[in-house]
Amino acid sequence: MANIASKQVLTVLGKQGILIAFVLFMVIFSLANSNFLSLDNLQSVIRSSAILGVMALGVTFVVISGNLDLSVGSMMSFSTIVVLDLHDKLGPNLAIPTMYLMTLGLGGFIGYLVGYLRLNSLIVTLGMLSAIHGLTLTYSGGQNMDIADKSNTWFGFFGRGEIFGLPVPIILFILLAAFLGVLLAKTPFGRKVYAVGGNPTAAAFSGIPRARTVFTCYLISAFCVATAGLIQASRSMGSQNTVGQGLELEVLAAVILGGASLLGGSGTIFKTVIGILILGFIQNGLLLMGWPFYVQFVITWIIIILAVWLDISVKRGKLWVSN
Description:
mainly alpha; ABC transporter involved in vitamin B12 uptake, BtuC; two-stranded antiparallel ribbon; two-stranded antiparallel sheet; 75% helix; 2% strand; globular
């Protein structure tokens, strides 16, 4: 009976655990601070989470395909610095597409190494994390970037603008999440991503092109990183050359928290969005309760450990093992 009850608990947690956790956190923080559920605070949290969220959408594809991408933080720094630098040299009309092409080139290179050459994604992206960081410093000459004339450009629209009272970063996050959610859940390509990550051998015998699928996943991730870099650059109209440093771990935490398995083959865009919001609201709730900002790192670590433990428990059918 105990084993049956344990498996039933695991089934519920595996399917709806992220939603239960989200509701639980929202209730706890709303009881702790009356301003937590105010419209201004909710909008502020979602807006501040948009950059991390956009990056997590792309990484979700990579993780479901059975791989990792630890280069997204340094790649975001690169895209932010490049678009700011090219803004003054070429103007925003040319700077934005050029930045996207350069970032997609980096993503395509990683996708080629992991997809076609079958190199380990952890090693490749860990190495690219340092390589792209070095490339960013070389490109910028070790200097931070600022737009010279901030008053006579429409570039700030992506990070500071509003449409019908809703901040543009939130709109971009929602639209991209909706598009990628449909792409992953409702298209043949999405089914290929799940197949490659869930059972590579069966996928190969089914004629699914693993290399091309993995390559495309890294291109999607790079596109999302470029979009995050655009929002970041537009919001601040200037940036440090290390603006994305460390974000790769937060992005991965959100994806795992959303239920995507590190073993590949499972996860959804919707739950990744919930994972991003949980991290954002946890940080906001702790600050409203007067806790130091560094406590957030400890709480985030605990959440990651619990999420990974739950993922492994669901796979083996037990919450714990005796030996």
